[in-house]
């Protein structure tokens, strides 16, 4: 798929990357430590190709059907072989097989059953699947994620029972209400708990278009940025 990015896309990407670098330096961190994942939810597959032409190598999707379809559509282009696909949406165990088949990294493992289903989808995988443990930073149990107090036990389960998965760290979405700084501090504490179980689980997936600076200050390593780069999402009708 030959793609010529529209000019504003490159401008937005460069501006966002400059803001990320400024936030990293303000927090006393090296910008090169950070992985910027561009979330392409609801955008066509050609946008992924456009982003790749601009140097993007990490893209994220919230919905399994969209992830599967986009990856299949782009599979025939050998120039896109170095793309890394992240599944960042809430994961149902019944969709674990499809998610595993289309993902290089899953950010939303939040219970034993989901971890078990991902492992069972490819238990003898030649390459392990990188996963984040999703933490719920709200008081609403309907939100995706495990309570912070349960994340260490989940890490123990994945490490002991799911050898085809590799716990890389923790992930969370800051609550809509309240300061993101306090929420990300709670996530950093959960990350410490996971590292006591899996010492090399050093990643933290946190920060979106509106709160990535606070996430960086709290120790985020992976930022999930959508509309600040891609522009408004297309109308789904």
What does this structure look like?
The protein has 237 residues and is an alpha/beta fold. The chain has a single domain, classed as TIM Barrel, CATH 3.20.20.10. The protein is 41% helix and 16% strand. Strands 7-6-5-4-3-2-1-8 form an eight-stranded parallel beta sheet. Strand 6 (165-171), helix 7 (180-197) and strand 7 (203-205) form a beta-alpha-beta unit. The longest helix is centred in the N-terminal third of the chain and has 20 residues, at 7-26. It is globular and about 45 Å long.
Query: How would a crystallographer describe the biggest sheet?
Result: 8 strands, parallel
Class inferred from helices and paired strands: alpha/beta
What's the architecture, going by CATH? Alpha-Beta Barrel
What's the shape? globular
Low-confidence stretches: none
Total tally of structural domains: 1
Number of helices: 9
CATH fold field value: TIM Barrel
| Biggest β-sheet: strands ordered side by side in the sheet | 7-6-5-4-3-2-1-8
Radius of gyration, whole Å: 17 Å
Strand content: 15-25%
CATH superfamily: Alanine racemase
Mean pLDDT: 95
Specify the helix fraction band. 40-55%
Number of strands: 8
Distance separating the two termini:
27 Å
Which CATH class? Alpha Beta
Helix and strand pattern: HEHEHEHEHEHEHEHEH
């Amino acid at each position: 798929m030959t793609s010529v990015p529209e000019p504003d896309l490159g401008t937005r990407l460069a501006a966002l990357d400059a803001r990320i670098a400024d936030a990293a330096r303000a927090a006393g961190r090296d910008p090169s430590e950070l992985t910027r994942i561009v979330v392409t939810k609801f955008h066509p597959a050609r946008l992924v190709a456009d982003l790749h032409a601009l140097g993007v190598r990490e893209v994220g999707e919230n919905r399994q059907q969209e992830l599967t379809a986009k990856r299949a559509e782009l599979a025939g282009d050998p120039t896109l072989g170095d793309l890394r696909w992240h599944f960042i949406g809430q994961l149902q165990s019944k969709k674990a097989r499809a998610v595993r088949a289309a993902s290089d990294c899953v950010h939303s493992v939040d219970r034993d059953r989901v971890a078990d289903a991902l492992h069972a989808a490819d238990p003898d995988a030649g390459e392990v699947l990188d996963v984040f443990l999703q933490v719920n930073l709200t008081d609403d149990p309907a939100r995706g994620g495990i309570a912070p107090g349960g994340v260490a036990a989940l890490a123990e389960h994945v490490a002991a029972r799911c050898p085809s998965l590799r716990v890389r760290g923790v992930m969370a979405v800051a609550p809509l209400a309240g300061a993101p700084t306090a929420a990300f501090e709670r996530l950093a504490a959960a990350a410490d708990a996971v590292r006591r179980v899996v010492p090399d689980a050093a990643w933290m997936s946190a920060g979106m278009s509106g709160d990535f600076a606070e996430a960086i200050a709290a120790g985020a390593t992976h930022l999930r940025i959508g509309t600040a780069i891609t522009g408004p999402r297309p109308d789904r009708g």
